[in-house]
């Protein structure tokens, strides 16, 4: 009897160990989140449907959610997507994507309500054109830092601002890997955004804290001048180097 219970206990311990090893080695997918996409333009129309395909619940935040174009975007997104006002969408979500014009960010942030505890994905570019026709940054610091200042208890991650919306929709059309530079002060929030980027076929790369957003927003200035002024378009691919 004693010998039997010893054998059973040994088997049980082995099973527990096996379950532990398996659960630690199998990567756990990011659980389904409610993602509010504020705006219903090009970036919203690319990221919304792609994130929905990953199993997330998408709610668009529009200044006019009953517009026909918004209804079409909701229908195209499928997977139970919906649309409401920006403040209501943000209140429902764990992750808020600010797919709005870069120069409108202050008015959007001032009317969106409390974003404390949420991940804010900031793909915006505040652009203006200099006298010579070249694009330049439209803010002194960066939109991401401004957003973090207006929402100090949210987790801002700058992401998806250095590529065209068509590449978000179809990364393979770029003809090679495309980087998604990420900056933000929360490693956990950046990991969540990295999983979203990877999920839609793009290559995230962590470039540091939110105070470096100025440089990432500057990357877009170089990108957009080459694309639309010099007509020598490129995509960013930051190849990681294996160190010993
Ligand atoms: N287009 C690209 O390829 C691309 C790529 C990377 C990053 N970005 C950046 O991502 C952001 C969104 O770009 P987008 O091309 O998607 O812009 P867009 O097509 O002009 O759409 C912006 C959306 O923001 C909403 N919005 C809220 N406040 C607004 C205001 N004051 N004026 C105008 N629209 C307002 C509108 O939706 P409702 O009317 O439904 O409210 C509008 O559809 C920009 O900051 C841009 O620099 C763009």
Keywords:
alpha/beta, globular, 244 residues, 42% helix, Rossmann fold, two-stranded antiparallel sheet, binds NADP nicotinamide-adenine-dinucleotide phosphate
Would you give an account of this structure?
It is a single chain. By secondary structure, the protein is α/β, with parallel strands linked by helices. It has one domain (34-228): NAD(P)-binding Rossmann-like Domain (Rossmann fold, 3-Layer(aba) Sandwich). 42% of the residues lie in helices and 16% in strands. The chain has 9 helices and 10 strands. It has helices at residues 2-25, 42-53, 68-77, 86-92, 105-111, 143-150, 165-169, 187-199, 213-228, and strands at residues 34-38, 57-61, 82-84, 95-98, 119-122, 127-129, 135-137, 155-158, 179-182, 203-206. A 6-stranded parallel beta sheet has the order 3-2-1-4-5-8, with helices on both faces. A two-stranded antiparallel ribbon has the order 6-7. Strand 9 (179-182), helix 8 (187-199) and strand 10 (203-206) form a beta-alpha-beta unit. Helix 5 (105-111) runs parallel beside helix 6 (143-150). The longest helix has 24 residues, at 2-25. It is globular, with a radius of gyration of 21 Å. The termini are far apart. 38% of the residues are buried. Mean pLDDT is 91; it is low at 15-29. NADP nicotinamide-adenine-dinucleotide phosphate binds next to helix 2.
Q: Please name the CATH architecture.
A: 3-Layer(aba) Sandwich
Helix content: 40-55%
- Given helix and strand content, the structural type is alpha/beta
Strand order of the largest sheet: 3-2-1-4-5-8
CATH superfamily, by name, is: NAD(P)-binding Rossmann-like Domain
From the 3D structure, determine the CATH topology: Rossmann fold
CATH class: Alpha Beta
Major β-sheet annotation: 6 strands, parallel
Task: Please work out how many helical segments DSSP would assign.
Answer: 9
The overall number of domains is 1
């Amino acid at each position: 009897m004693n010998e039997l219970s010893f054998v059973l206990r040994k088997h049980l311990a082995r099973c527990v160990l096996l379950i532990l090893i398996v659960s630690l080695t199998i990567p756990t997918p990011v659980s389904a989140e409610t993602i509010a996409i504020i705006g219903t333009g090009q970036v919203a129309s690319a990221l919304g449907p792609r994130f929905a395909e990953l199993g997330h619940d998408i709610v668009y935040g529009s200044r006019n959610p009953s517009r026909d174009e918004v209804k079409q975007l909701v229908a195209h997104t499928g997977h139970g997507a919906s649309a409401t006002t920006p403040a209501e969408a943000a209140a429902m979500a764990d992750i808020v994507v600010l797919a709005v014009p870069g120069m409108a960010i202050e008015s959007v942030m001032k009317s969106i309500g409390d974003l404390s505890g949420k991940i804010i994905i900031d793909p915006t570019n505040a652009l203006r054109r200099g006298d010579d026709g070249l694009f330049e940054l439209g803010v002194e610091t960066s939109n991401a830092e401004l957003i973090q200042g207006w929402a100090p208890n949210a987790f801002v991650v700058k992401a998806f601002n250095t590529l065209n919306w068509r590449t978000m929709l179809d990364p393979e059309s770029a003809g090679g890997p495309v980087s998604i530079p990420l900056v933000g002060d929360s490693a956990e929030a950046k990991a969540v955004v990295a999983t979203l980027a990877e999920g839609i076929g793009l290559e995230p790369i962590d470039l540091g804290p939110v105070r470096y957003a100025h440089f990432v927003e500057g990357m877009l200035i170089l990108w957009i001048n080459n694309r639309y002024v010099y007509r020598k378009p490129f995509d960013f691919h930051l190849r990681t180097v294996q160190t010993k």
